[in-house]
Amino acid sequence: MRTLLIALTIILLPLFATAQNFDPSKYGPQKQDLLFPGANQNPKLPQLETVKPLSRNDVEKTKAKLAREEQKLIKLAEKTWQIELDLRAKRESLKNLENTSKNNNDPDYQKNIEKLKKEIAISQNKLDDAKSKQGFRAEKVLELEIMLEESKFTRKGS
Q: Which long-range contacts (CB under 8 A, 24 or more apart) does 91-95 make?
């Protein structure tokens, strides 16, 4: 009987020791069923590389950007045309001033000619700047058109 008491104490002693040092995180909820261990898990399929076409939003954004750039190009062309007309008018007035002033003895003759020549030079600089900006915008519009055409055939990987 004494051996039975000693054996029972040796068997139950670890249970009392674990009860005193209980840690609930070790004994949390079970993640798998005991009867069907794989019931909660979905089978993992191999991940294939997906290829998506260019989304509608990207194409629409490119079209909107192209439309804005075309509008800017049109405004620059109108501005260039106005500057060019102004320059032609100033050149004509310079020719008229040179022709009419030869007949008249006007004391401000040279001053008027110099003033018109300065205005013509300023207008010429403005025209050159406007034409360079117009060329830049035309190149940008061409690039956007090419990008839009390429985007129709391009696919985007995810």
A: 91/120, 94/120
- The pair of structure tokens assigned to 137 is 């915008």
Query: Residue 126 and residue 6: Cα distance in Å, rounded?
Result: 110
Instruction: Kindly list the distances between the CA atom of residue 116 and the CA atoms of 82, 92, 134, in Å, as whole numbers in the listed order.
Output: 18, 10, 26
Q: Partners of 53 in the beta sheet?
A: 155
The number of angstroms, rounded, from the C-alpha of 143 to the middle of its chain's C-alpha atoms is 15
Contacts of 70 (CB under 8 A, 6+ apart): 141
The pLDDT tens digits for 132-150 are 999 999 999 999 999 888 8
pLDDT for the residue 98: 82
Buried b (16+ CB within 10 A) or exposed e, 128-150: eebeeebeebeebbeebeeeeee
Q: φ, ψ for residue 53 (rounded to 5)?
A: -70, 160
* Helix, strand, coil % over all residues of the chain, rounded to 5: 70, 5, 25
Tens-digit pLDDT profile for residues 120-135: 999 999 999 999 999 9
* E strand or H helix that includes residue 53: strand 51-53
The HSE-up count of residue 145 (CA atoms within 13 Å, CB side) is: 8
